[in-house]
Structure formats: C-alpha cells, structure tokens
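Internal tracking record. Fields below are filled automatically when a chain is submitted to the structure queue. Please do not edit lines marked as system-generated. If the sequence contains nonstandard residues, flag them in the REMARKS field before resubmitting.
Queue: standard
Priority: normal
Entity type: single polypeptide chain
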Amino acid sequence: MRWPGATETVSPRDYRSGNVHPQRHRIPSGEPRGGRSARPELERALADEAWPLRAQAAKALGSIGVKGAVPALEAVLDDPAWWVRANAAAALRSLGDPGHRALQRALDHPDRYARDRAREALAMDRVGAAA
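SYSTEM-GENERATED OUTPUT FOLLOWS
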C-alpha cells in the first residue's frame, strides 16, 4: 500500500517482519502529508490484516479530524489488537460530539475491551476538564 508522502510501499509483510523504516514508510498522520483525501485509504486500512497498519490508520483518522470516519472507528473498538482499540478510542475522542456519542454507545458494547477503551477515553475528557 502506498501512502501520500511515502517514498516506498508499505506492505503487511513489512509490518509482520518488523521491516519498517520510519523515514521510508510514512503513513499520513495529519493534514500536511495525507489530508482528508487519505480518508478512503485509511478506512480501508482499518480492515488490513496487519495490526500496526490498522492502529496507525485509526490514529491518522483522528489526526486529520474527519468526523465522517466515526462509524469506521467505532467498528474497530473491538479489534483483537489493543493498539487498534486504543487508537480508535483516542481518535473518536478527538472528533468532538460525534466521536463522544460513539464512545457513549460503546459503554454498552458486548466486548469488554471496547467498553474499557471507551470508558478510558471518556475519562480523559473529565481529567482534562478538571485541570
């Protein structure tokens, strides 16, 4: 998979083997490199077999602030990989009201890990407000 701004293609095999060089394999994490135009690729990456790619895609969707990505992020709150769940919850938290509503819904999710990540993300807002 080739991301805007990357100098080499990132493949799931690269992630599984640990053969990822941070200077060559760049996934957009903000507007300058990928921007909102990266949304379709990032949403597809949420279903990739390589969990590091799914985790980075969730983080990038939150970083570029696409509120339309809420359903895709909400869907991976029960991902088998902790980092994917954590990044999806953090991304939802960063997307304002639509993301917060998704996190509230996740408090009743059948998966306990999804509930945990939602509870943690919502608690971070309370901590930030108290400071």
